[in-house]
Amino acid sequence: MHGKIPSKLTRAIEGGAEDDAIDLRQVQDFLHRRWKLILACAACVMVLAFLITLTIAPRYTAMAQVLLEPRKEKIFGGDNILPELNLETGNVDSQLSVIQSTNLLRRVVEKEKLTQDPEFGPSAHTGLLGFLAGLLRSDEADKSGSGAGSGIPPEVLNSIKKLKDALEVARVNRTYVLSISVTSEDPAKAARLANAVADAYVVDQLDARYDAAKRASVWLAERMEGLQDQLRQSEEAVSRFRKEHNLQGTGGENKVTISEQQLSELNGKLISARADAAEKRAKYEQAAQVTSRGGNVQAIPDVVHSSVISELRRQQAEVARKEADLLAHYGDQHPLLINARAERRDIDRSIAEEIKRILINLKNDYDVAKSREASLQNSLDQVTGLTGQDNGVAVRLRELERINASNKTLFENFMSRAKITQEQSSFEEREARVISPATKPISPSFPKKGVVEALAGLVGLLLGTGGAIALDMLNSGFSSSREVEDKLGYPVLGAIPLLAEKDRRIDGKVADPGQYLLAKPLSRYAEVVRAIRVGIQMADVDHPAKAILITSSIPSEGKSTLALSLALSAGKAGQRVLLIDGDLRHPSTSKYFGLEDKPGLVDFLTAGTPFEQIASQQLGVTVIPAGMKSQNPPDLLGSERMKRFVEKLRDVYDYIVIDSPPVEPVIDAKVLTPIVDKVVFVVRWQTTKRETAAHNTDYFASGHKLAGVALTVVDESQTPKYGAYGHYSGYYYKKYYHN
Question: What residue ranges are annotated as transmembrane (predicted)?
Fold first, then answer.
């Protein structure tokens, strides 16, 4: 027996986070289902945006570029006193505020006469709107700190504010280039104002340097006067001290006493004498060491550099050559050879005597230098003893002279700086220049129709998507069998397709669903009815149902058509079928067969009309119409006689189908529930409310009488748009059916 299918909520709880993932197929199906609405909303918003842009006055933006240039060389040498432009990041960014400052923009306003310009001048609004705008401008002026206390007229402040709103200053990437953009309704005016702001900034930089130079010159002039007086006083103090102590100088700019001059000269001579004595001592000691050790005295530097020794060595070499020649031609005892050898010995003796004389001279030179050093040291000691007496006076004099020299140096430095500063103030070196003047823009910067239309399209798509989602959420009906099972938790026996007139046309005539089922037993409609009939039997395989009740929530959901189709399908299958019209208030089945005026169920239950008079054979099934009108249909349908009547019919017929009224208006179907085996609840596609269907199906399921749900009037051309909840269209199955 069919049990209740777990609802979507139950599966979500049991399934964990698997249902949390976004199903792209559901998104695709949603777009397939609502794409017309979404595109329509996007188109409407884009058209509206286009119309709005036509009503907005276009605005144009012109841009000029200014390059900040610090001086890379000192024009006048040395360190400049005037301030230089520091191009650190923070200082460059601060130049943006300078360009947007009130003082700089005031120059532009006054130069361009913007107070008389309709766009930047006083507002043209009058009345209440003008009054409110004036109050707003006053509040903004107070907040900006540029009120009446600044001395700027209100109309100029108003123009400055409007120019500041139209002005945009930015640093180009991380370079030293600043872009100055002005937006206006007139493209020529935008370019003119952008260039005016750039020029005003360049002039402001020059003015700032000129003002700084003037202030520096004034300060230096005042300082020089004080330094000049200080220098004069220090010179007078030195001169007065010399006169008081009768100190005579040697002349020159820096005067010193005679004793000091003598001491200085003796010090210089003593130092020279000590150096000379040390040098000669070294030469003498070197020669003495070579002689005492038996070394080669001819290697002594003075011997080597002696011109006499050099000449004797030349003669010695010539005699040696001559001796060698004679020895080659004559014997050892030849007179010429003996003379040559005697001559060579004389030369050797002369060389030895000359070397001895040189060594003696070295000793004498050293003794003389030593004596001279001692003499100078004695003279220095005497002079030092004389100068020590006036040492305190000399110390004071030197102190005064140092003070004077310091004052003189400071005064000369300030005089040099003053001249440099004066030259700098007259030299207009630019630290900012316009590298790209603004030109008249061709196309407006606002509104950018392409961007506006793109944003409008995006907003329209979002609105359309939101509206489509809202429509889906507001749709209270069922879109498919899967959705019925998810929402209600009960099985769907079948989804009966919608039969349009063109589909039901047979031999040129439009057939009703019953006739169509009999004429087209292999059609999809007939197959779905058979599936419902089989599903009813499978609801309780151990006790196959014979008496079937067909009902729904509200009228016009297709319950009578389904009851008729089930009866005709079972009759076509060779079963003995009884169709009872249990809707005593609106007997649709009786009207279908033309039996609304014939005796029927009411006559049998109230007047005891024989069964043979109320039953008739129609299209292969036995039909019992509703009969005459009744004032108490629920009492008749719930009577004991009705119960016994159905029990007797079970023995005669294989299949009993009862068409009952809908549940919501009347309780007739609920009264009939105890005497039937199963109940088939009809739900119309996209029409029956979910809450209503859930409430009524739960009632029938509580007594274990609900066989399942039949979804009727399903438009299979639309169901594929509902993705997982959709049905495949009959188009995919056409080779199995003969519609």
Answer: 37-57
Helix (H, G, I), strand (E, B) or coil at 434: strand
Does the bond joining 447 to the residue before it have cis omega, within 30 degrees of 0? yes
Cα(487)–Cα(5) distance, integer angstroms:
10
Residue identified by tokens 């707003």 is: 136
- Gap between the Cα atoms of 693 and 689, Å rounded: 6
The tokens for 717 are 């051309």
Question: Between β-strands 177-184 and 167-171, what pairing exists: parallel, antiparallel or unpaired?
Answer: antiparallel
First to last CA, the chain: 33
Q: What is the side-by-side strand order in the sheet with 60-68?
A: 167-171, 177-184, 60-68, 432-436
d(CA 361, CA 83): 72
DSSP codes joined into one string, 610-640: -HHHH-EEETTEEEE---S--S-HHHHHTSH
The span from the CA of 238 to the CA of 405, in Å, is 11
Total residue length of the chain: 739
pTM above 0.85, yes or no: no
CATH architecture of 478-733: 3-Layer(aba) Sandwich (3.40)
Residue 287, SS3 per DSSP: helix
400-457: per-residue pLDDT in tens? 888 888 888 888 887 877 777 666 555 555 678 898 999 999 888 888 888 888 999 9
SS3 per residue for 652-711: HCCEEEEECCCCCCCCHHHHHHHHCCEEEEEEECCCCCHHHHHHHHHHHHHCCCEEEEEE
Helix (H, G, I), strand (E, B) or coil at 1: coil
Residues spanned by CATH 3.40.50.300 within the chain? 478-733
Rg from Cα positions in the chain: 64
| Residue where the block lists tokens 């040492």 | 391
Burial class from Cβ neighbours inside 10 Å (0-12, 13-18, 19+) for residue 20 reads: exposed
- What local confidence, expressed as pLDDT, does residue 473 receive? 74
Nearest to 594 by CA among 619, 569, 558, 570: 619
pLDDT digits (tens, 9 = 90+) for 68-115: 876 554 444 445 554 555 556 677 888 899 999 999 999 999 999 899
CA distances from 333 to 317, 336, 343, 346, 418 (A): 22, 9, 15, 19, 99
